[in-house]
Design goal:
- This protein is α/β, with parallel strands linked by helices.
- The chain has twelve helices and eight strands.
- Strands 1, 2, 3, 4, 5, 6, 7 and 8 form an eight-stranded mixed β-sheet that branches.
- The protein starts with 13 loop residues before the first helix and ends in a 9-residue tail after the last helix.
- The relative contact order is 0.16.
- The mean pLDDT is 93.
Length: 314
C-alpha cells in the first residue's frame, strides 16, 4: 500500500512524521528552526542504508572477482587471504570481515584492505570505472532475484528526492570505495559523482599522449568510516550536515555530527528487521541502536515503516 503525497513508499506513522515535520521546520522562514537552503546538507551512508549489504557488501563481489582472477593466474596466492576466500567462495569469512570491524576487531579488514590495494595497483581510474560499471550492470544478487544495482531501497530514493525538492543538497558518505560507487550513483540515486565521499586508494599522475591520467598505487589513502566520516564530510563539503542517515556502528560519529550547536538535526538509523523482503540482522549495529534509544534518534524499521523495499518485483 502506497501513501499519498511525499514519501509514497513510507507508511504513515511516527517515522514518516518525524521526517516530514523536520523538513517543514527547517524550511519555514521565520520559524525557530529555519535553516537557509544553502546550509541544508544531508549525508547518507551507502551500504545497508541506500542499498542492500547482505550477504556481503556489493563492492566485495567486484573485488572478489578480481581476487579470483589473480589467484588463478598466480598459484602462490591460493593459500593466502583474501585470495583464498575469493577462490573458495568463502562468503562466511568475507561477511565476518565487516561485522568484526564494527565490533572493533580490524585484524581481517586490514588483511582485506592489503589485498585490495594490491589487486588494483597500476590500473587507471578510467579502466577501474569501466570495470565497476560493467560489474554493476550485470551482476545478480545471490538471493533477491535482481541485479545488484537494483537492490536499492526505493523509500530512501524517495527521501533523497523529497529533500532535494525542499532545498537540501544530498551527499553519500560511505566506507565503500568512492570510485566504485561514482559510476552509478547518478543513475540509481540522482547523486552526481562529485557528491560521493568514500574510502579511496592512493593515486598518482602519469603523463601520456592524452594529456595524462591517474593510476592507483598499492597503498590506501583513506578508510572513510567511524570518526573519519565527519572529517571527510567537512573537508569535502565545508558545511556541517543537519540530516544524516546510516545503519551501523561505523556511522555513529556521522550521525552524532548532524545538527548540534543550536541547530536542528535529524538522525536516521535504518534497522534491518524484514526477513521476508530483505534481511533481518543487527550484527554490527548493536551500539548504534543503543545510542539511538538513549539519544532519541529516529529508527527506520524496514518492516514497519516501508510499504515497499525495492522499486519493482524481481
Amino acid at each position: 500500500m502506497t501513501t499519498a503525497g511525499p514519501l509514497p513508499s513510507w507508511t504513515d506513522g511516527p517515522t514518516r512524521a518525524a521526517i516530514t515535520d523536520f523538513v517543514t521546520r527547517v524550511t519555514t522562514e521565520g520559524g525557530v528552526d529555519y535553516v537557509p537552503s544553502a546550509e541544508r546538507v544531508a549525508v547518507f551512508d551507502n551500504d545497508g542504508t541506500l542499498w542492500c549489504e547482505k550477504p556481503m557488501p556489493v563492492e566485495l563481489g567486484f573485488i572478489l572477482k578480481r581476487f579470483a582472477e589473480q589467484a588463478e593466474a598466480d598459484p602462490s596466492l591460493r593459500t593466502r587471504q583474501p585470495w583464498k576466500a575469493a577462490r573458495e567462495r568463502d562468503d562466511h569469512w568475507l561477511g565476518e570481515v565487516i561485522t568484526k570491524h564494527y565490533h572493533g576487531d580490524d585484524s581481517d579488514v586490514t588483511v582485506l584492505m592489503g589485498g585490495i590495494v594490491q589487486a588494483f595497483a597500476g590500473m587507471s581510474v578510467s579502466e577501474y570505472e569501466a570495470a565497476a560499471r560493467e560489474f554493476l550492470d550485470g551482476a545478480q544478487h545471490p538471493t533477491l532475484g535482481r541485479r545488484l544495482k537494483e537492490a536499492t531501497y526505493l523509500p530512501m530514493v524517495e527521501l533523497l528526492r523529497f529533500l532535494e525538492a525542499n532545498g537540501f543538497v544530498t551527499y553519500i558518505a560511505s566506507g565503500g570505495d568512492r570510485d566504485f560507487m561514482r559510476p552509478v550513483t547518478h543513475d540509481i540515486y540522482g547523486i552526481p559523482a562529485e557528491r560521493v565521499i568514500g574510502s579511496s586508494t592512493g593515486l598518482r599522475y602519469q603523463d601520456d599522449e592524452t594529456g595524462g591520467t591517474l593510476v592507483y598505487e598499492a597503498a590506501m589513502d583513506v578508510f572513510d568510516d567511524g570518526p573519519m566520516k565527519p572529517v571527510r564530510i567537512w573537508s569535502r563539503v565545508g558545511r556541517k550536515p543537519i540530516l544524516a542517515g546510516g545503519n551501523s556502528n561505523g556511522d555513529i560519529p556521522m550521525l552524532q555530527y548532524a545538527g548540534g550547536s543550536g541547530r536542528p538535526g535529524l538522525r536516521l538509523l535504518v534497522l534491518h528487521d524484514d526477513r521476508e523482503r530483505e534481511f533481518d540482522y543487527t550484527a554490527g549495529a548493536e551500539k548504534s541502536l543503543d545510542i539511538a534509544a538513549a539519544q532519541g534518534w529516529t529508527v527506520v524499521s524496514m518492516k514497519d515503516d516501508w510499504s515497499r523495499v525495492f522499486a519493482d518485483a524481481p
